[in-house]
């Protein structure tokens, strides 16, 4: 071997990252090193400057890639993992990844070895970064400030553990596309003006506003959904560590809510025992009872309970899922877009809604708050099985009083509140199902499902929906 070749083989190379989260730069340098046949022990990786200075320094000159260099092997799993590992703050992350990339050239399946120390370490770093990103998605709280030109701008403060800010900019751009916002962090800031994203240097906590008029909304909403019967302090602290509390308006309520949890749980149990002693004997009594019902958290969330309406001796009872935003405000069932669509198709089938008793499986509106440029809006959230089963008490009371010949369930939640278990709409629709009280259950889709569809899918499902209603109408004529 020539003296020149021996010298090349003993060279040690240093790669200085220009940015701590630049996966594309790392990948470019790593490919160049692999194709130049430079093993991991002869490469040093560092963030620019070596002491946290991310904007200075350069690379030791790397050798040119040979013309006959082989293609670099990298599994999809490795690339997916590496994109997150690069965002970690571990100073050895670049060397760890290069070592794994180097080993893949002779062992393409190394990433499948769960006992390998380097693979396990990369998975640990990946998990930590994903968890940090999850916390950013969950715990960023925007506060509104009014600019000098009168425009509204929303500012949030967040303290990430890792270099995740730039990587998560797209999430917030998609979620709050119509807002003008800034997320300030000690690791750098991102800003969205509705058209373009820009970055700025790290900020301090004092650069962000402390509160705004919407803080009371967050606190009220959090208090309304807090269920003392399901409280597990250790699990809550794991999911919502105290380090994030100072940025969350609702966090000020947590100590008091925990302290009073046992008392509130006892009150809920007592109220439940009182409500469930005997079923109401009139629809008026049902209406009074559901307004004071707090047997599940939804009762504290909505504006009011929404009672069914229609003739007390209706031959047809129509059951939906739950009140929506419009129904919650009006206190009447099926007055929103889904209700208006239902009216159109009922009329088309020959069913007069005025002759039917219309109600819902769940009596309160379950929702989540979403921040928009115009403020927070309430978005429908499907009730859980336990919540449907709790409200079954009230639906059974309505059925006992009205005594309908036919029950039309719109959607899976409505079918469950009658059956007591989940059923397949596609398998059960369009045919009578005998019930113990001598009535028949008919199942079809909920009209809100049709509203979510487009094109051919909507046309197909609308045709099925109309066929189901027509079959119900024919059965009503026969009875």
TrEMBL record:
Transmembrane segments: none annotated. The keyword Chaperone does not apply. The keyword DNA repair applies. It comes from the Bacteria. Residues 307-470 form the Uracil-DNA glycosylase-like domain. Keywords: 4Fe-4S, DNA damage, DNA repair, Hydrolase, Iron, Iron-sulfur, Metal-binding. SUPFAM superfamilies: Uracil-DNA glycosylase-like. Coiled coil: none annotated. InterPro entries: DNA_repair_put, DUF4130, UDG_Type-4/5, Ura-DNA_glyco_family4, Uracil-DNA_glycosylase-like, Uracil-DNA_glycosylase-like_sf. GO terms for biological process: DNA repair. GO terms for molecular function: 4 iron, 4 sulfur cluster binding; deaminated base DNA N-glycosylase activity; metal ion binding. Belongs to the uracil-DNA glycosylase (UDG) superfamily. Type 4 (UDGa) family. This is Type-4 uracil-DNA glycosylase. It comes from Pontixanthobacter gangjinensis.
């Amino acid at each position: 071997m020539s003296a020149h070749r021996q010298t090349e083989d003993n060279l040690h190379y240093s790669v200085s990252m220009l940015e701590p989260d630049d996966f594309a730069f790392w990948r470019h340098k790593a490919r160049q090193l692999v194709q130049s046949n430079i093993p991991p022990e002869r490469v040093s990786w560092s963030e620019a400057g070596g002491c946290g200075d991310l904007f200075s320094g350069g690379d030791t000159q790397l050798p040119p890639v040979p013309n006959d260099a082989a293609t670099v092997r990298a599994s999809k799993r490795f690339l997916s993992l590496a994109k997150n590992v690069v965002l970690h703050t571990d100073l050895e992350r670049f060397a760890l990844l290069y070592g794994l990339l180097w080993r893949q050239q002779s062992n393409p399946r190394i990433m499948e070895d769960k006992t390998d120390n380097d693979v396990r370490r990369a998975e640990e770093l990946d998990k930590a970064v994903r968890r940090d990103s999850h916390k950013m998605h969950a715990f960023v709280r925007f506060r509104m400030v009014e600019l000098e030109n009168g425009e509204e701008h929303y500012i949030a403060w967040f303290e990430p553990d890792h270099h995740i800010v730039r990587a998560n900019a797209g999430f917030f751009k998609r979620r709050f596309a119509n807002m003008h916002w800034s997320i300030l962090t000690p690791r750098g800031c991102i800003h969205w003006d509705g058209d373009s994203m820009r970055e700025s240097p790290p900020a301090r906590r004092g650069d962000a506003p402390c509160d705004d008029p919407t803080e009371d909304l967050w606190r009220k909403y959090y208090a309304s959904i807090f269920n003392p019967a399901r409280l597990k302090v250790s699990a809550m602290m794991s999911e919502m560590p105290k380090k994030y509390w100072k940025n969350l308006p609702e966090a000020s309520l947590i100590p008091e809510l925990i302290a009073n949890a046992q008392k509130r749980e006892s009150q809920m149990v007592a109220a439940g025992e009182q409500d469930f002693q005997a079923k109401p004997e009139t629809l008026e009594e049902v209406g009074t009872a559901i307004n004071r019902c707090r047997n599940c958290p939804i009762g504290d969330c909505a504006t009011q309970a929404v009672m069914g309406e229609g003739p007390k001796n209706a031959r047809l009872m129509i059951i939906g899922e739950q009140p929506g935003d419009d129904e919650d405000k009006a206190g009447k069932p099926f007055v929103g877009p889904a209700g208006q669509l239902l009216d159109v198709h009922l009329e088309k089938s020959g069913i007069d809604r005025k002759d039917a008793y219309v109600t819902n499986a769940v009596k309160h509106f379950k929702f989540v708050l979403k921040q928009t440029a115009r403020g927070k809006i309430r978005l429908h959230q499907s009730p859980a099985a336990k919540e449907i089963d709790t409200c079954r008490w009230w639906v059974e009371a309505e059925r006992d009083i009205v005594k309908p010949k036919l029950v039309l369930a719109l959607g899976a939640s409505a079918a469950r509140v009658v059956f007591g278990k989940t059923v397949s709409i596609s398998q059960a629709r369009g045919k009578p199902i005998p019930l113990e009280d001598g009535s028949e259950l008919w199942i079809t889709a909920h009209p809100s499902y049709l509203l979510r569809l487009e094109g051919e899918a909507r046309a197909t499902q609308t045709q099925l929906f109309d066929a189901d209603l027509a079959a119900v109408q024919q059965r009503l004529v026969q009875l």
